[in-house]
Please model this.
Amino acid sequence: MDLLTIKELAAKLKITVQTVYSLIKAGQLPPGVKIGKSRRWDWNEVQEFIKEIKK
Model:
């Protein structure tokens, strides 16, 4: 399992970091997991989440 930083997640989605935060706030992306003071996202979980909201 690879955990992505917010910058890495934004790059994979081809959007800005600010847009990632906006999508999380709107419930269109998972909030990720908090590790210490950082937040990370599992790329597979993000892809599944996106598939589910598209249904």
In short: The first strand starts at residue 3 and ends at 4. The chain is about 55% helix and 20% strand. Residues 43-54 form the longest helix (12 residues).
